[in-house]
Fold cyclic-guanylate-specific phosphodiesterase.
Amino acid sequence: AKSEGRRCYHFYTQELDAALQERMELDQAMRHALERGEFHLVYQPRVDLISGRVLSLEALVRWRHPVWGMVSPGRFIPLAEQTGFILTLGPEILRQACEQIHIWKARGIPTVPVAVNLSAREFRQPDVFERIMGALSTAGLEASDLEIEITESAAMSSVDQTIRTLTQLNDRGVCVSIDDFGTAYSSLNYLKRLPVHAIKIDQSFVSDMREDPAAHPEDAAIIRAIIGLGQTLGMTVIAEGIENQVQRDFLIEHGCPQGQGYLFSRPVPAGEVERLLGVGG
Ligand code: C2E
Ligand code: CA
Ligand code: CA
Ligand code: CA
C-alpha cells in the first residue's frame, strides 16, 4: 500500500508539473510578446439600443503569437493576473489606448470616449489613480476621453481603497463602469456608495435571452432587477453580449438604454473605427 501511494503521488506531481510547465511557458511567451510588440487593441462600440448611435468604444487586448496565432485574453489575462505580469501589460494597454485616442483627436475625428479594462490587481495598485492621470497627460488627453471598467468582484474587494480611487477618478471626470455585473453578489448597500457611472449586465444573463426570454424566467428577472437597480441608483445600464434582435427588443422593452454585442459590431481594429463612427470610408 505504501509503494502504491507513492506511485500515485508521483503521477500526481507529474500532471501538476505539466500544467505548471504550460503556465510558465505561456508566462515566458507573454513577456517576450510585449518586447516584440505582439499585443494590440481592438475596439467594440457601446451603442444607444434604440438609435444604434455609438456612444463609446471599449478597448480589448489581442495577442497575435507568431506560431500559436491569436491567443484569447480569456486565457492569458487570468494568468497575467496570477503571475503579476498584468502590472507590466496593463500600463502598456493604457498607453496604447491613450495614444490611439490622441491620433483620432489629432485627425479631427469626432471621437467618443474609449473605455479601458483594468484588472483587479491593477486597480488595487496604490498609485492607480496617478497612473491613469499620468497616461492621460502624457498623451495630451482630457479626463472625458477615457473611461475605466473594473469587474464587480474587483470593485467589491478592499472597500475603502475602492471608494477612495473611484472618488478620485469621479472628481477628475473619469467615468467608471462596473463590469460583469450580477456575478459577484454585491451588497446593494455598498454599491450605492460607489461613485460609478454605469453597470454592465454580464453577458451570461443576456446570452440566455437569445431565443425565447420567457423560457429563461430567472435570467429575465435578474436582467430586469439590474435595470431597475441602475435606474434607482442613477447609473446607466449597459447590456453586454447582444447578438440578435430578440435580445435587443427584450432589453429595450424593459428599459435598458445601452448595449454592446455582435449585433452592432464585433471588436474591430483601430483602422475600422472611422467606419463605425460614420466618418470617412
Ligand atoms: P469583458 O471585459 O467582459 O469583455 C467582453 C467580452 O465579450 C470580449 O471578449 C468581447 O469580445 C466579447 N463580446 C462582445 N460582444 C459579444 C457578443 O455579442 N457575444 C459574445 N459571445 N461575446 C461578445 P474578449 O475580448 O475575448 O475579452 C474577454 C475578457 O478578457 C474581457 O471580458 C476582460 O475581462 C478581459 N480583457 C480583454 N481585454 C482586456 C484588457 O485590455 N485588459 C484587461 N485587464 N482585461 C481584458
Ligand atoms: Ca469590459
Ligand atoms: Ca463584461
Ligand atoms: Ca467578462
Notes: The chain has twelve helices and ten strands. The pocket of calcium ion (ligand 4) is lined by residues 180 (CB under 6 Å).
